[in-house]
## 1
Amino acid sequence: MIYQTEKNNLNNSVMAEQKKLSIISFSGDFDKLTAVFTLATGASAIGYEVNIFFTFWGLDAIKIKQGRSLVGRGFLPKLFAFFMGGLKSAPVSRLNFGGISPGIFRHMMRKNNVATLEELVDAAKVLNVNFYACEMAMHILGLEKSDFIPEVKDVLGVPSFLKIADGGQTLFI
Amino acid sequence: MIYQTEKNNLNNSVMAEQKKLSIISFSGDFDKLTAVFTLATGASAIGYEVNIFFTFWGLDAIKIKQGRSLVGRGFLPKLFAFFMGGLKSAPVSRLNFGGISPGIFRHMMRKNNVATLEELVDAAKVLNVNFYACEMAMHILGLEKSDFIPEVKDVLGVPSFLKIADGGQTLFI
Amino acid sequence: MIYQTEKNNLNNSVMAEQKKLSIISFSGDFDKLTAVFTLATGASAIGYEVNIFFTFWGLDAIKIKQGRSLVGRGFLPKLFAFFMGGLKSAPVSRLNFGGISPGIFRHMMRKNNVATLEELVDAAKVLNVNFYACEMAMHILGLEKSDFIPEVKDVLGVPSFLKIADGGQTLFI
């Protein structure tokens, strides 16, 4: 009898386990960030735990100062920050047409009643998607936690991220 | 005795489960699409269930009208369709050399007896790889199910795709 | 009693199983290769089995002859090898500024005491990260196993790689 109970507990704990999606958001491209936040909000809406680990160009999406700002300690980090330019000036990974494509996409998204990137980011916040920043990339780019929006839960290295992502699906975008 | 039987059943069901590979095919680049279809056919050949979820630029690979066509509802979707241009004019993600690289790759693939991209797509169809199209990207690009090859099984949102991909490996390419 | 023992064995074997991270290293970009080796060394440091499957542009990272060499059988493979140019001339995927960005990144990495790409590759070797080369991409690019560093354990097709990666996380970078 005791075995039966234990097995039921085991089954219950396995079946009740929350599904998990973790995304390494590496790219700063408009279309890829749209993919990150579409997957994140879609998964969160059906009850997944969702973790986004922003690294390299992806860090641009969670900076407080959007637009062409000089965020970062040192001359070179500032230079990169200026050219990265944040969500509002993120280029498209292909057919960027000298920078007019993100605007065209925004227009097409609005016209076709699809959530824009900014709306998706807001939705992710409301849905309690977990935002994390990559420690190493912050070192390279001269960024600190205070440069990021308050929704960023923590600064993590690879080992901590792997622990958080363990047992779920992980995507590199 | 009953426990023994139940456990055997449990073990059998776990061991007999078909392995699964799901690919989010986001890129429209020649080399990345080659990776998508090489992985898909390779996994299918050893008995995996394989699902490809075409989104954004990746949708280009499953359009009926290949070449520089004006598929899509509205002016801007048509414009993008023209520049995307389908499988036969997909650029290489790096060292595209103004568009001659895909031809060079095709030549090198044929010369070295490696399946070309078109042959890999055909193989994926024969191997019953499941093709799905992303609903949201279709809205943005003004595409409808009738614009795609008949092998496209369904149009899905993120939640439905996550359910299909659940329990297997998922790659974003 | 026998069930109890069996269940304990089952639990132990599940708990003792080594975690696994497998990376398909497709890109030859400096920043993406840095991500590959940061993830690989980070996972290995906490006891993961780590497998890297180098394919397409990623093969550039494991060639013996670094720099702009003419490795490969045939004229076209040699041409691509020349332009790929190995780890030391890998471009950055974005804001490459005509090739000066990797140098800037190297400078920023050294200044901020972050391991450089070359140091990460060396660390991966020391940590026994498993290096594999993709058979099909080698055929296309006219490369042979003898063109690669001795740490490359084997040349694999997709099915063999899937078997190695089975049961762990897999990322496409």
## 2
Amino acid sequence: MSKGRLEAFSDGVVAILITILVLELRIPRGADWAALRPLLPVFLTYVLSFAFLGIYWNNHHHMLHLADRINGGILWANLHLLFWLSLVPFTTGWMGENYWAALPAAVYGVVLLMAAIAYTILQRAIIAGQGPDSRLAAAIGSDTKGKLSIALYATAISLAFVNQWFSDALYIVVALMWLIPDRRIESRVTE
Amino acid sequence: MSKGRLEAFSDGVVAILITILVLELRIPRGADWAALRPLLPVFLTYVLSFAFLGIYWNNHHHMLHLADRINGGILWANLHLLFWLSLVPFTTGWMGENYWAALPAAVYGVVLLMAAIAYTILQRAIIAGQGPDSRLAAAIGSDTKGKLSIALYATAISLAFVNQWFSDALYIVVALMWLIPDRRIESRVTE
Amino acid sequence: MSKGRLEAFSDGVVAILITILVLELRIPRGADWAALRPLLPVFLTYVLSFAFLGIYWNNHHHMLHLADRINGGILWANLHLLFWLSLVPFTTGWMGENYWAALPAAVYGVVLLMAAIAYTILQRAIIAGQGPDSRLAAAIGSDTKGKLSIALYATAISLAFVNQWFSDALYIVVALMWLIPDRRIESRVTE
Amino acid sequence: MSKGRLEAFSDGVVAILITILVLELRIPRGADWAALRPLLPVFLTYVLSFAFLGIYWNNHHHMLHLADRINGGILWANLHLLFWLSLVPFTTGWMGENYWAALPAAVYGVVLLMAAIAYTILQRAIIAGQGPDSRLAAAIGSDTKGKLSIALYATAISLAFVNQWFSDALYIVVALMWLIPDRRIESRVTE
């Protein structure tokens, strides 16, 4: 099975998701600052979601670099990841339009959490296919960043019902934490 | 004619279809559970359609692996398949928004049935191009799963007018039946 | 300059156009036959536009096969073609929703006519880059089919103001005329 | 890291942006000239945005031709460029629907300005990765056209509040200035 076609399909889906996000930025009725102002929370959510999808594309790119073989399990684990990512435009729009409400902020986090779990499953499927000398397993090590993200998302989801700003802050922390591509893998690739 | 460009075009179309599906998940007006609840049937239909498009991409991927030559007939048979798949976002939205109505459930099945028939036609066009020693024909054998799917879709369409849940159950059965990539072809490829 | 990236970009644009066409099929309010019936003209226009975009993809595919070099002029001629094709979802939706009106049917034809002219310009740009021994020029010959299409589109545009059915019939005639990929080029490629 | 996948992802995003632009051309209610006329400003803005996205794709294509290595910084600089380009459909729709208003014309320019700055940052990231003998640096020289564009965009943004036509004229000037692919790079590639 060809890794190239898996990469191309995933890139296609992420490219479309990152682009149709903009359709959530509804064109305002008026043409003055007053018409633009209500768009600000949607725009900020848009920036955050754009960053998350960019991070996933980036890390997916690095991870597949270290994959040797693609099997049926990897194909499905990849589609499972794409499924959760495909919900990002919806949660972006809902959180953007209800910026001070708890539930949309929590649901936004649930989709990010499920995507992070799906990413971990995909990682394990690739490692399982590579056997004990897996290059990817060596590159990832204890995957502290991955586990920390999942813990932070779970915290953010619960905190949304206390105060939505806690959740937002945590989402931004996770995004910043990942904005640098995975050096562990990058250094392996260079070797 | 290049197989690569046919694969890339098909992947592009399926990637876009699987992604614009999410546009059918309309952002609810409110921000509480009550606002989210009416979305549940649309979401479940979304999951089902995502699975079907994922299955088609997966099997299309496997099938083209065993194709040697691409001719005009194969190009058109492929576009014919993409045509029926392109209607999935529409039927998903319509069934999702009218979850207890017979006609949308039946039309959902008609599009799946036509896509399954188009897939079979594409399969035959590839086999016809390969001649008597077709690797694809050998891999597919009697195509029991393909024929069974078509029979199940036809049954589901009629049952929609009795009770829509029968149809839904059958659609799920067909999806589960295919969720494993075609082992027959996979083993051939490995050989 | 790489032909591959030009092909990939064009395929991407056409794949997206052929897919977002379906967004013009608005989900009906009701769930019975009465709700579905008004969609019929939009659906038929959808089928026609799908066929036209499929034909363009197909012939574009064949034409670029015979292109040796890509230069700046070819890049822009290609973008010019994509521009006119990009208007097809708009004209499809407008004609579909106003099926018995003259102007939408004429505008539908104008976009097809401009796309056909843009295709001819692209063809000439490729031939000009190849010089006197152009393989594409030899394959195309006098380009009767191309010239005839342009004449038929022009006729259909004027006839739309007499009776829209004449235009529709002519659009279908042109589509059928092209549904077979360009044998002249195909035979050249095989040689 | 593979340049191919970066190019494919960027091409995908630009192809989708250039295509979903057409969704801003809302289908008019009526079917006569009166219904079509209000679309004219949206259509003209559409043509302008299509040209800008085409220019970016074209120049991006040329620039990456001269890139040797892709590193993490280049990936993020590229995503940053795509972010600003992703806002073009929104600003196109807003300016198109409010054609005689100052603010939408200024915001249209702000997005173009930020995209131009992002392009320059990407250029520098590639040059930095290539070291003192950078082929791209040699090809670009003093980058007069790039600097002039940024100055013209800044002027156009301020002039929008005087008279929107000044801004429009400047946007068209910049587009025309770039409609020819970068000869400096093209000649380097040929060498």
